[in-house]
Design brief:
Elements: E1 2-10, H1 24-33, E2 38-44, H2 50-56, E3 63-71, E4 77-81, H3 85-95, H4 106-109, E5 113-115, E6 121-124, H5 137-146, E7 150-153, H6 163-167, E8 178-181, H7 187-196, E9 202-204, E10 220-224, H8 229-236, E11 243-245
Parallel strand pairs: 1-2, 2-3, 7-8, 8-9
Antiparallel strand pairs: 1-10, 3-4, 4-7, 5-6, 10-11
Length: about 250
């Protein structure tokens, strides 16, 4: 077993709020510079730029997991991760059944650019990605878990787009793998979350929309045998000796 540092919440140029510096090679280079061994690509409601980052990381000491930051029908954000791109794309297809056909307005929300591993533009997504899907947070969590995904509630200390902000206290038996706090959560906020939600691992990610937001302090270490998806899932569920190392105690 050894500690592996991961940032499991990173956006690319496909997210309309993502900076134009969030290209595939740039994310890989920045992650390696920050000492990360694992990252996850989690654009809003889509995983379609994950392939670019995964290919850009080939031959380098960086593991890239495909994922999505899903926005539920209640406007709650949750990150869903999978071990393969095919699994992530299948989940996205399920999520997009009945997805609202609201068009993006780039001048208002930003561009939504699909790229390859060398940042060549493949297409622009016309449907606005930063909107609620027609799936409840309960449906999203249940579906992700049924597909062997990992799911955690995003930035639960935020006053918008978080489970507590929308629905109130998180049930003690809610079937998610972890709770994410923002990178700049205060000690008091962290302690209050530990007291209110003692049964969940707490993790910290960058939620990066620009390269500068990817930094060592905005990450979480996992005690695992290897930096692969099976070991990550075991760590979240405290199985086989794998576990999450509390970011505020390491």
């Amino acid at each position: 077993m050894r500690p592996v540092r991961a940032d499991l919440h990173i956006h690319t140029v496909l997210s309309p709020c993502g900076g134009l510096d969030m290209g595939a090679p740039e994310i890989v280079a920045r992650a390696l510079k920050c000492g990360l061994e694992v990252v996850a690509v989690t654009d809003h409601n889509t995983c379609r730029n994950a392939a670019a980052v995964m290919k850009a990381a080939r031959g380098k000491q960086l593991v890239v997991f495909p994922g999505l930051e899903v926005q539920s029908s209640e406007d709650i954000h949750a990150v869903v991760l999978f071990g393969t791109l095919e699994e992530a794309l299948d989940f996205e297809a399920w999520l997009w059944e009945g997805f609202p056909k609201v068009l993006n307005r780039p001048e208002l929300f930003g561009e939504q650019i699909l790229i390859d591993e060398e940042n060549r533009i493949l297409a622009e997504e016309p449907i606005l990605l930063v909107q609620g899907a027609r799936r409840s947070i309960d449906e999203i969590v249940t579906e992700a878990r049924s597909r062997n995904g990992v799911v955690f509630l995003s930035h639960v200390d935020r006053e918008a787009f978080s489970y507590p902000a929308v629905l109130g206290p998180i049930p003690v038996d809610y079937p998610v793998d972890a709770l994410e706090l923002t990178c700049y959560a205060t000690e008091k906020t962290v302690e209050n979350c530990r007291k209110a939600c003692p049964s969940f691992p707490l993790i910290r990610n960058s939620d990066a929309h620009t390269l500068a937001q990817i930094e060592p302090r905005c990450s979480t270490a996992f005690l695992v045998e290897e930096p692969d998806f099976q070991n990550l899932r075991r760590a979240f569920r405290n199985e086989g000796g794998c576990r999450v190392l509390d970011p505020w105690k390491v």
